[in-house]
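notes to self, project folder thing:

trying the whole complex as one job this time. last attempt i did each chain seperately and stitching them together was a nightmare. three parts in total, labels are on each line so i dont mix them up again. if this works i'll redo the older ones the same way
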Amino acid sequence: MTATLHAFIVKELRHILRDRQTLTILLLMPLVQVVLFGFALRSDVRDVRLVIVEPQPDYATLALRARMIAGRRFKIVAVTPTMAAVEPLFRRGKADIALAFEPDFASRLESGEHARILLAVDASDPNTGTTMQVYARAVITAYEAELGAQRGRPVHIVPEVRMRFNPTLESVNLFLPGLIALVLTLVSALMTAISLSREKERGTMEILLVSPLRPWQIIVGKVVPYLGLAFANALTALLAARLIFHVPFRGSVTLLLAECLLYSMVSLALGVLVASLTGSQRVAMLVALLVTMLPSSLLSGMVFPIASMPAFLQWVSNIVPARWFIIIARGIMLKGVGLEYLWKETLVLAGMTLLLMTIAVRTFKPRVA
Amino acid sequence: MSQPDVIVENLGKRFGKTEALSGVTFSVSHGELFGLVGPDGAGKTTLFRILTTLSIPDTGTATVLGLDVVRDLWAIRSRVGYMPGRFSLYGDLTVKENLSFFASVFGTTIEKGYDLIAPIYRQIEPFASRRADALSGGMKQKLALSCALVHRPDILFLDEPTTGVDAVSRREFWDQLQTLRASGLTIVVSTPYMDEAMRCDRVALMQGGRILEIDPPAEIGTRYPLPIVSVVGAERYKLLLALREAPHAHSVYPFGAELHFTDDRANLDPSTVAAELREYLISKNFSDIEVKPIEAGIEDSFMELMPPPVQRAS
Amino acid sequence: MTAPARSPATGPAISVNNLTRRFGSFTAVDNISFEVAPGEVFGFLGANGAGKTTAIKMLIGLLAPTSGEARVAGLDIVKQTEDVRRRIGYMSQRFSLYEDLTVLENIALYGGIYGLTNDEIRKRSSTMLQSLGLTDDLVGRLPLGWKQKLAFSVALLHEPAVVFLDEPTGGVDPITRRQFWELIYAAAQRGTTVFVTTHYMDEAEYCDRISIMVDGHIAAIGTPRELKQKWSVLSIDELFVRLARPT
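result (full assembly):
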């Protein structure tokens, strides 16, 4: 009995070792994942963009300013006398946290009154939001103690925290835009890759080729039905987000759906490209997964903040379509902004679609061998 | 006389280390039913792929309907009917859906092509709403042929249309082909079955990427270089082994109920061979045997012409 | 543990009695009965969809019959399926050997599965390579004809009483096809019963006896000569056409 089993196990091992293509992917993929995870998995934050709101600068506000940026965790991106400038910066995604001093900050401290600081945090990502807030308060508390020791009597700095855009710190609000991206990627990229390579494997591709059908017609014909499917998926995902998870929908739903469609087109184009460059269905599927799901989940800012990644990975994330879509989705759903703030990201996605489609059509071989 | 519909000149194609086609030259006249006969690996599919513009040859040239297969691929693709090997249709679409899809891809409709496909399509029309993968092998074939014809092509390329199908369906299929040919359609068809070669106007024997001989089927046997006789008797295996030991045995092969014995003396009269063999077999204690001279058939010629099978081809 | 010896030549190698198989309302195999003697080369013919494949699957234990019974190598196919499997060999056109393993690795695998000792495997491997004129290589690199001859030899590796061949010679050149049949004859001479299906009607003539299945039942059975006389035809091909008219 064991001899039989042994013979069978040996056979299976041989199959695995001799399938070079699959073996490479299966050994490479976990390695890539480990490396990426190692770098990308950062719960600490760096280079947080800080806006200082000080009605009148004085020694206390300046001292706190200096303390904030001393630890290299924060960098000051703007100094403004009123709160008015802060909101637009948040909406455009140009600032992560705002420190607003009460007027007469230093004199209040001197007279032993409570001197208030308003901490407004962009909590679209509740994890980083919490962390930023914790850092800021640590700096403030340390200064408070130091000043008190200097003066010989206690001083009171009272921070008030406002978590903008996500006051209850729902992590589902963080994840859901990314999940929508993932769902759309899966359907679009994976299914077009499989559909095209299945046609090749079945042999029906040969008949399609020996006909007046041009490559672009075949590709568009493959893509359009999946676009419809992707739209249905986007609708379902958004409905679930709203009805089951109560994710806020502060912006235009129409715009969001349109952007979902645009993002689907990018994924579809990617799927077509993968299919025309690979051979069998199995390889097409593996490569499609590698090239779409992996970057979309790890490098898009869906879970791990991009700002915390090493510079190289930050650069790479620029070519991950999901990264741009998540900015758009979060912008519309949580911040309620419209195209006037998101035109750049939308343009990036549109450009990617055009580029990928052109390459896909060009590389689609009108011949078999 | 107008130009032949297909002209192939010294075609060669290599895949890595394997030479799939080498020095292939032939032509097909308008309205001819031309057969390519050979086993798997002979190069038939590679040749068809080149002629239907799916593949580019490494050496040589080919024209179809006067158009070059490399340069004029789009012009050729709209005028050719193609049936690749192994039933390449959409199993999850119905009979009618498959047909109308292929019609529309060529910018036509089932109605416009109906009179051409009718003799074939009428046999499966009762099953029009059945999914293609639920059809029997013979019906799938008929559907594939209808789909290849519906746009009224000027030439038909059929790659092993009868492989994997039972003898009855095979016969019927060839009946259809002859009807089509009678209507003036040029047909190039490949098959591994030697008996189907008999139904072509001309036949090219193919093996190992090369053409062994091209001739009308009736004439192929006439070029057989050695005398050949048939032997019939009981205890066939023993008979076979004994014949292999006979003097001047060039080759001995079973052929259905008979054994074919080829003598290595080229100019000898077959009746002499038959007489000598009879004596030899009697001396070996075989009784109730029948030995008579025969005309070599296509399969005899094929086996004589083909290079002996080797494990690793050059 | 050595492989079981071939069953002694007493009683038929295969005996089928009122074997039936239904799939829902469709009867694929309709009450067939026949016998095959030991050492016989039996040709099992029929059109696609006539029920051949279903019948074979039952005989090799892959499918249970709806009713009726059958014995292969003296063992009941339903009650003693595992034992039957040890006594038979099987080769089909769709699959026989692993393409990404070498010839010797394939032999070792099947030898291991059927319980041959390493010594026996080694001996039989070298005999096989010699008689086929093969050098060890990845099976995927062998031409089709060699793969088929090898697959047949491997099916005989454990010296089964009955070997089932499902369209073993599809697509090969005519010489290799005949070489294959000489292997079949040699095996039959050694006492192995060979149960073979084929689409080549000339191969039907190579068999000792043949049967033709039409629509789930056996329409003709006997030696090729008998059948040709009985139906007044010149070839089995003609007989087949006459019987297997499409429904």
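what i see at first glance: DSSP finds nine helices and ten strands in chain C.
need to look closer tmrw
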